[in-house]
Each structure stands twice: as structure tokens, then as C-alpha cells.
Amino acid sequence: MKHIAIGFLGAAALGLMASAASASTLSDVKAKGFIQCGVSTGLAGFSAPDDKGDWQGIDADFCRAVAAAVFGDGSKVKFTPLSAKERFTALQSGEVDILSRNTTWTINRDTALGLNFVGTTYYDGQGFMINAKKLPGVNSALQLSGAAVCVQSGTTTELNLADYFKSNKMEYNPVVFEKLEEVNAAYDAGRCDVYTTDQSGLYGIRLTLGSPADHVVLPEIISKEPLGPAVRQGDDQWYHIVKWTYFALLDAEELGITKANVDEMKNSDNPEIKRVLGQEADTKIGTDLGVSNDWVVNIIKAVGNYGEMFERNVGSGSPLKIARGINALWTKGGLQYAPPIR
Amino acid sequence: MASQEILREEPSRGSFINDPKVRGIFFQAVVVVVLVALVWWIANNVIANLTRLHIASGFGFLRGRAGFDISESAIAYSSDSTYGRAILVGFLNTVIVAVVGIITATIIGFVIGIGRLSHNWLIRKICTVYVEVFRNIPPLLVIFFWYSGVLAVLPPPRESINLPFGSFLNQRGFYFPRAVWGDGSWLILVALLLGIAMAWFVARKAYQRQMATGQQFPVFWTSVALIVGLPLLAYALSGFPLSFDFPKQSTFNLTGGFQVRPEFLSLYLALSCYTAAFIAEIVRAGIRGVSKGQTEAAGALGLRPRSILRLVVIPQAMRIVIPPLTSQYLNLTKNSSLAIAIGYPDLTATAGTVLNQTGQAVEGVVIMMAVYLALSLITSAIMNVVNARMALVER
Hints:
The complex is a heterodimer. Chain A is an alpha/beta fold.
């Protein structure tokens, strides 16, 4: 018995070490043949399973883009739904290769948590939603003193909420749940007066409520919430692949490369387009990154460029109908800007 | 120990290596060394890997500003408090729900357990149904039943149900007036303590008198008069210093008064109902474990059925009941961590939030495990003391 117990403990400890000590994420991913992608437990427009059980949304598509860059096939992704509380541990321990889960980029997460955020796939800000039918006359967040506020635990949202009410000398009753579905259910049941999370999330959640038309999102945005994918620290190659996948999506949009015209574009006269699509003679851009030279072609074929991804999931092509706003390209007055691929 | 003593008396056969005593010590030492080395190695491994993955470690984060609010707190807490204090708030919430849950579960459990042995068919069957229903449903479902099935369907704050004494019930919880103690109200507290002390003294004297002379004294009513009457007298003498803060309707919720939130209420009711079913079975087994001859003998002495139960059966049943009761108390305390599903800020929920805000998972989990372990050990220790006092003293 004693020996079995010791053997078991030893094996458990070895397992702990082995899973944490993977040398290169790229070679691990290639060996297992797919990318393990950490997503939310269901947030419309970002990552939510559709009626066939396929994950849809910007965050899910981003993982498909990385899979397309690595394997030339956007379907080689497996999704792991994670609660806000589980997400960082899942990435740190190697359970997922990318965390693409509407997660706010902060300095603490970049430094103390051992993560590296690759960029901002969606510029968001925190807002408030109320039931206008039950609370007529409330049209500003500054009128919310004394309200019961539903919020998900362990998020930056929870912290911003405390800061906002404190700085405006208002009081509130926090009603805190761990899972998004629990927060949704509590708000829908009337346990709280106000729902707070990222504004994009509020629009998505409003669609899932009993009677969406009764609910309004208040105009105030109380925080900066740059949402983006993150990877583990200490693996620069993988970090570069994920980061440049994001930049490639933006550069493709800027150059007018779309899912429909990507094959035509390969024969373009424009040297920049040819270079991005890997059509330049003796190009080493892709292989230096650790992927094939037609990686951008694969990405665009899989998910389209950033603009297409946006419109399909949260923009005009989706039920959410969110305007591009600050998520437009820098050339159109937005914040999305990518360094050149050369 | 006994076996070793017997072995010692036998002459040592063969060499030093075959001496059972030496071998025993040797193997125990080996196990201790291996265990210590294993723990040390695991801890070292964790620290090395955390450093390699650039994850901050150590318990220094407990002094940082928490930044989030907690809905229910027994001590002063705001978003400016430290992470350590946030965990303390969660710990106290766990203790509160565990203590009131244990008391309620014990009361319900004893009533149902005795009810199952009742001669009344209806009472017996109702108690059986209670036990079978709650014992066979997972505690999480019982919690959801109270939270989503009972409390969430109550009317919204504007249509609160009015209860007597200025109390209200709505889907945000149960509101009742809060007592505001004015000047001189310390006199009432002193009177209450005095009343309890005097009641205890009277009970002791009455017991001694009954032992000596066999004469009985109405201890119960005297105690009630002392414990209730003295504070009332003090209240009148100090000029009625008590006033009430009644809950009032405001823009969003009822304000003022005292609010019991539905999260606490449903967790408390669910844990009490669930654990009571097990306690009822333990109590029934304990009573059944007392030989029938005891009841018959007591009856032959002329004791009435209630006195038989109170004086003969229950004291003996308690000896059988207390050890398994301890396990149920521990279960209730640990089941309180299911609170996270309905958002009651217990230890698991607040420590989980801290863990997530700081990203220090290993430390967070270690704190949670240590606290639950300590809570369980303390509960066991208390119950062991109770058990030792109840146990049959062998002469």
C-alpha cells in the first residue's frame, strides 16, 4: 500500500512538471494537430456555440485564423469554454494554447500573471444596462445610486464598478456571480436593477433576455476595455505567430484583400499585396515566423480580413449590429493599426 | 502498543536486523523521511515552475488593495480594504452560515427523527417523506430550488409583500426593522445577563433540592420570567430607549431596516433542510439503539412517556448520536462552499475572486484548503469534548 501511494504521488508530481515544462508551443501544437483555444462560456458575437454546436464569434474566429496560419486549415481548433475565474490558470498551466476570451489587457495581467497579450481585437468600454420599463426616468448611470448591480466576479468590470460608484459618491448593492449565465438569469429575474459589463457584451446579452426591447444600455462608458488574445510568457515564437496573425488580419483589410478576392489578389501588380500574400520570389517572411509562406492567404481564406470578421460576428451582418466606431482602421478614423508585413 | 509490549517480553531471536522493535523504528523513520522529502520536492517544483513561467508568487499580495465590493460583510469592508480582509470577510460569512445552519439543522433533525418514531401514523409518514425527499436530492439542487424556485419568484421591490411588524418580503430578500439602541440601553443587556445567570442558579438549586428531597420546582417558568422579565423591567426603568429603523421604499430598493439577502436565505435553508434529513436518521438510529428494556423499566417506575424520552432514552441515545453528528456538521460546513453557485460571498467565492484578480492560484487554493481544514478540525475538537462529557463513565 505504502509503495503504491508513494508511486501515485510521484506520478502526480511528475505529471505536474511535465505539463508545465513544454519547450515550444508551436511544436506541441503541430504534434497534436490542433490548437486548443480558450473561449468564454457563451457571449454572443465573441464566442458562443451556434445551434449546431460550432463556436461562432470574433474570439472563436481569431483562433481559426491562427490555426489557418499554422496548419493551412482553419478548422484545426478545439475550443475550451472557460469562466472568468478559470481562464488565466488554464492558459498558465498549458491547458489552452491561446486565451481568446474577451479578456481585458492590463499591466498586471501582462506582468504578474505570466501572460503576453498580443493586441486588441476589440476596443471596448464598460457600460450599464437597465430595464427601462421597470425604471422609467433613469437615463444616466449617475442616477443609479442605491441600485442592486449584477456583475461577474473576478473581472476588471467588478473593479471598475467599485471605482465608478466610489468616485461619484454613490452607493450600490453588488450581486456577484461566477458564471455569465448566472448573471444573465439573475438580471432577467429581476434580482438586480442594473447589469454591468463591457458594452459590446451588454448588446449581446440583451438579445438573450426575455424581452430585449425593454432594456436599454445607458450612454456612459466608464472604462477602457481593450479586449484581446493572450499567450503564455516565455515562448517568443508562438507569441509572434499569434501577434502577426492579428496584424495580418488588419493589413489584409487595409490592402483590400477579402475572402472573395484573395486568389485574384495573388496575381496583383501591387508589390505590397504580393509580399503580404507570400508571392514575392524567394520570400522568407512566413518561414522566418515558423509557418508556411502562404500563411496570410490561408488566414484570409479561413476567416476573411478583420473587417469581414467584425461585420459577420458583431457588425451589420450579425443580430448585434454594433457600429465599427473606434474599431475601424486607422485610415478610417479608428484605432486599429498594424505594423507592415515586410 | 499492547502488541509491542508482548513482543518485548519474548527473547530476541536471531540477529539485530530481525529485532521487530528495531525494524519497526527503522521503517517508521524511512516513511517520515520519504514523506518530508516528497513534500519538500513538490513545493520546490511548484516554486521553480512558477518562477520559470514568470508568475508572481508569495503571500505579499494579501496586503494589496482589493478594489472590489462584497455584498455581505460582518465586519467593516470597502473596496479600499486589503485582499486579506476580503478573504476574512468570506471566512466569516462561511462561519455565520455554518453556525446558524448547524443549529437549525440539529433542531429540524431532532424533531423529524423523533417524529419518525411517533405512534401517530400521519406524523410518522410526513417525517419519512421529508427524509426520503431531502436525503436523495443533491444539495446543489436544493439550493437552486430555494433560490430560483422559491425566492426568485417573489414580487419585485415595488410590490413587496407586507408582513406584520413593518417587515417586507420581496425577491431582493427579507426586510425587517432594525433596533436602534438609545442612551441607557446597556442596562437592558446587563439585565439580560443577570437574568440568565439567575436562571442558571435557580436551576442548579432546584436540581439539588430535588435530589435531596424529591420536591420539584417550576424551573422553566421561573427562568422565562427571569430572562424576559428583568430586561423588560430595565427597559421601562431606563426610559424606553429603544426605537426602530423601518425599511422604506426608495427609487430602486427598500432602504433602511435590516436586509436578509436571498442568497444567504436560500443557502441557509437548503443546507439546514438537507443536513436535517441525515441528522433525523442518525437520531432515529440513536433512539432505536437504546434497548427497549430501558423504556419498559422507566415505565415500570411510573415515569410518563415524555419524561421517559427526556430522562432515560435521549441521554443514552446521545452517546450513539454524537459521533456521526460530527460528520454531518463537517459536511454542512463544507457544503456551504456550494454558495458560489448563487453568489453568496462565502470563503470559496471571495478567495476565488481574490485568486482571479491577483492571478495567484496556488496561494489562493492553499489558503482555502488550510481554512477549511482548520474549520473542520475545530468543529471536530468541539464535538470530541461534547462526546467525552456525554460518554458513559466507566467505573
